[in-house]
Amino acid sequence: MRTRFWRQRTKIIPATLTLIASLLLTGCLGNDAEDWNGKNISGLMPELEFDLINSQGESVSGDDYSGRVRMLFFGFTSCPDVCPTALQKLSQATSGLDPELQDEVLTLFVSVDPKRDTPERLAKYVDFFGDNIIGLTGKEPQLRELAKRYRTTFGYDEPDPDGNYAVSHSSAIYVFDREGNPRLLMRPDLSREEIRHDLVALIQEDS
User: Which of 80, 101, 145, 191 has the most crowded Cβ, counting Cβ within 10 A?
Assistant: First the structure.
């Protein structure tokens, strides 16, 4: 039976907005020497670390993807709006890089809907958006621990009579440098050109 996508707009968890507001109040997000488009979160969050399953069903950790600039995004494949829009923008941002720089960036799409998002389904989903996107998921406790690590959360609505349900989640994009250090928090309203500018700056500073 073909899965029918949920038509209601995705509910966005406000936890990340609360984080941004608190950091602004403490003056921690001021621009430094680099003119970032994203918010500078250097030293304000833990390094990239996880133990999940990729879209091939293999156990992976954050160390398996070290050496590249990585963008971390929480979502789910049945998401009708936020996830496909964000992933398309990230794909356009990276595909617009100079060819020699494109492999220096990786998007990590973490599905917080493990009940529906099997590795096979994840593989088909991320492959649609390009080559440098990795689908990840895990058991719900693992996913909640990872979300908590980056000061956000997610939740599930009650299923409708057909078994479909909406998932609320953050729309933030976390950017880590080659060593896995947290560097930027990207807002979903940034353009692909603005995202690309920040990616180039991170690649060049680590090269």
Answer: 101
